[in-house]
Amino acid sequence: MPTQILMPALSPTMEEGTLARWMKKEGDTISAGDVIAEIETDKATMEFEAVDEGTLGKILIPDGTEGVKVNQPIGLLLEEGEDESALEEAAKAGQSGGSGNESGGGASDGEADSAPKTAPAAPKSGPAQPPVPSSGNHGAQPDADEPTYDSFKRQTVREALRDAMAEEMRADPDVFVMGEEVAQYEGAYKVTQGLLSEFGDKRVIDTPITEMGFAGLGVGAAFARLKPVVEFMTFNFSMQALDQIINSAAKTLYMAGGQMGCPMVFRGPNGAAARVAAQHSQCYASWYAHVPGLKVISPWSAADAKGLLKAAIRDPNPVVFLEHEILYGQTFDVPDVEDFVLPIGKAKVERVGSDVTLVAFSRMVGHCMAAAETLAEQGIEAEVINLRTLRPLDTATLLKSVRKTNRVVTVEEGWPFAGIGAEIGQICMEQAFDWLDAPVTRVTGADVPMPYAANLEKLALPQPEHVVEAARAVCYRSQA
Amino acid sequence: MAASRRTRSGGKEESGTPQAKRFEPDELEHLYRSMLVIRRFEEKAGQLYGMGLIGGFCHLYIGQEAVVVGLQKLARPGDSIVTSYRDHGHMLAAGMDPKGVMAELTGRAGGYSRGKGGSMHMFSREKGFFGGHGIVGAQVPVGTGLAFAHKYREDGGICMCYLGDGAVNQGQVYESFNMAALWGLPIVYIIENNKYGMGTSVERASAPGDLCQRGAAYGIPGKSVNGMNVLDVIEHCAEAVEHVRAGKGPYLLDLKTYRYRGHSMSDPAKYRTKEEVSKMRSESDPIDQLKTRLLDQGVFDENHLKDIDKQVKGIIGEAAEFAQQSPEPDPSELWTDVLVDA
Asked: According to the UniProt record, where is the region Disordered (chain A) (predicted)?
């Protein structure tokens, strides 16, 4: 039997890709290590190397095919001694797929607009998540305070972040970007794509792997009134720089009696990506939100990302800007206006509802929107608040909603203890106690380091169905 | 005494032509087999990653096999080993079972961390392997602490602490050097210098100067060694290991090596030319070099080496099979091992 050549997974978040080009023709001999094709992933064009030896018997997926799913057979490899008659046999035998156990899938729990995969130990299979709604113009018109826009462009969160930096760099020569692989590599997650070519290596700076060093250097440059945008390849690495962020950046204005501000941004992906395990999958929202002297932003949509990053760069204070790797590739509507800036410290009601308030930030807003759709089918109208900024927290928007719905569910990827949900619960207690008809309820990440195994990782992260359950519980609805 | 603690090689890379015949045939076979096990293991891991059976980050060691195989030849039972996230080769060289390592990569119950750690985070107390660390440079103070414990207990062990060329600019590396030199800790710091810290070449990340001299300010002797030839590694690193074992304090080695694959599976490696990679592969491959020498010097014949290849392929095939058959961890495992019950 010929060996099937399967579409490879070539990044942690890849579920499908484009077969850009075959580097071998049918009939070519292949040795292990030969590049047989170029594959475009969600991040880059990768060379796909052969592992087995043989002859390329048949190409099943031609050059330029988009949307080829991981593990789909793309070609057939004839082993030594096999000829073309083996190909016919293979065709008859049909698609046997890989020898793999699908449940170990690498790119699990990818984009929020795909249905959750059913891992063996998953809670009862959740609702298929609807496509991510556009941020400005979906069904129930959200926030009266939010200006309305006439025209939008479709953008990924990744592009929106890049545009925000580029626009601010064009407007202000004191803004510069530094971090690991931000320049020549164009960002480990391609967020700084194109910046080096436009702004040059004076303003787009590759650093050594030295987080404490370059974070502190950024602080010093900000003291001298430059406006650094310091990228952490992931916020997991910001722990190496924690002292500089908190002791130097956050506290100096106060210690200097107001003389010495620190106008800078620390940005990068935060939270869990996919299968990168304990040391690379942590949410730092509550860590940084704890610190006076910092502003902390965590956007969900591309519009949030663009408008708030521009605001963060302009802000005269140190801003921690927590992005999410899984959101980078997601597309949203971004208002197509010149200089789109959003206010820091202002939450957005993404969906209006009367029965329960779902409060979240970053990727979990998408989970709440999905849960709200399911709840609506069950006769529960959920209001979804996208916090956008965690410090200062927009308590006015929160309390207004609580006084209307009388029920609150908070959702976050991070750990429960002393998390953002704990703070929101306390705010509700202190300022809306008489309006509450049920205890404020938290949906959080499991109180454990992030496990690597696909099934355990899924169990460790909040899923839309958990939000649905929690919302039903505070509405005192019995199990569906 | 002071003089002997200064950098010895002045940054020149130590390589020579050690005679394969100085090693016993069974030793040579062990070296060849060990490198081949790593190579085939990593190729299989890459394949399983492509099939979606391994997730997240997966950093392959292909090309660097001579470093860890050579250095671990100089280790003794009771020594400790610690490294970064490019760790599969170290575990295999430390004698860990390929089945358990591969099953950890697939996130299964049969893995060394029962599926909870993954590629970057694996450990074996039995084999003295203390990880597998995901944060660049973090293993260096940890390794220094392992060395501290060897000295404290006077157990005769030393720590082999591996770090990449990218890690040498982390501040904690120098905090560690100072303590290790100050307290005379038994540790060999081994820089695996594969020329690129992710996509940034050493020249773009590190101020000029040989990395083996980075300990000079602390009086730590250093040496650069050709890390593409396993016999060179053994020959030229032996002095460092002896120095440390004799209680003379830390030693810094800069092993010049090369990784054939990208930084991780999702790195397209556009920062270097194809010619550079293929030149290293064709001219400096550690396995090919040893093979050629063994054949030229008549230590083994082609058939004997083919038999080894076959056996290794079998071992790796079994490991891959085990890694796919082993069940996923039980859901209850989510909540275990957070704290020791006390």
From this structure: 82-152
Cβ neighbour number for residue A418 with a 10 Å cutoff? 12
Convert the pLDDT of each residue in A450-478 to its tens digit.
999 999 999 999 999 999 999 999 999 97
DSSP class of A217 = H
Q: In what order do the strands lie in the sheet with A35-40?
A: A45-49, A35-40, A16-22, A65-69
- The domain segmentation of chain A, as residue ranges, is 3-88, 152-335, 348-474
Pick among B200, B203, B273 to test the A interface (most A CBs inside 10 A)? B200
| pLDDT recorded at residue A96 | 44
Q: What are phi and psi of A369, to 5 degrees?
A: -65, -40
B122: chain A residues, CB-CB within 8 Å: none
* A455 vs B205, B324, B331: nearest CB: B331
Among A326, A273, A300, A327, residue whose Cα is nearest residue A390: A300
Which of 204-263 (B) contact A at CB < 8 A? 204-206
3-state secondary structure chain B: CCHHHCCCCCCCEECCCCCHHHCCHHHHHHHHHHHHHHHHHHHHHHHHHHCCCCCCCCCCCCCCHHHHHHHHHCCCCCCEEECCCCCHHHHHHCCCCHHHHHHHHCCCCCCCCCCCCCCCCCCECCCCECCCCCCCCCHHHHHHHHHHHHHHHCCCCCEEEEEECCHHHCHHHHHHHHHHHHHCCCEEEEEEECCEECCEEHHHHCCCCCHHHCCHHHCCCEEEEECCCHHHHHHHHHHHHHHHHCCCCCEEEEEECCCCCCCCCCCCCCCCCHHHHHHHHHHHCHHHHHHHHHHHCCCCCHHHHHHHHHHHHHHHHHHHHHHHHCCCCCHHHHHCCCCCCC
C-alpha–C-alpha distance, residues A11 and A33, integer Å: 19
Average pLDDT over residues B144-155: 97
Please give the C-alpha separations between residue A188 and each of A41, A233, A273, in angstroms, as whole numbers.
14, 7, 13
Task: Count Cβ atoms below 10 Å from residue B302 Cβ, excluding itself.
Answer: 10
User: Domain limits of chain B?
Assistant: 3-325
CATH class of B3-325: alpha beta
Q: Is the Cβ pair B135, A279 closer than 8 Å?
A: yes
* pLDDT score at B118: 96
Q: Do B169 and A209 touch (CB under 8 A)?
A: yes
Confidence bin at A122 (pLDDT 50/70/90): very low
Q: Which residues of B touch A184 (CB under 8 A)?
A: 199-200, 204, 271
| Mean pLDDT value across residues A102-123 | 34
Cα–Cα distance for residue pair A6/A14, rounded to 1 Å: 14
Q: How far apart are CA B14 and CA B4, in angstroms?
A: 17
Residue of B nearest to A208 (CA): B205
Q: What are phi and psi of B33, to 5 degrees?
A: -65, -40
Determine the Cα–Cα distance for residues B294 and A368; give it in Å rounded to an integer: 64
ipTM score of the complex?
0.88
Contact residues on chain A for B208, CB-CB shorter than 8 A: none
**A348-474 matches A152-335 in CATH topology:** yes
CB contact under 8 A, B55 and A70: no
Superfamily of domain A152-335: Thiamin diphosphate (ThDP)-binding fold, Pyr/PP domains (3.40.50.970)
CA–CA separation, B15 vs B233, rounded Å? 8
What is the percent of chain A with per-residue pLDDT over 90, rounded to a whole number? 72
What residue of B is the nearest CA neighbor of A101? B324
For residue B141, the one-letter residue type is: P
CATH of domain A348-474: 3.40.50.920
Report residue B272 as tokens: 């270097």
* Domain A3-88, second-level architecture: Beta Barrel (2.40)
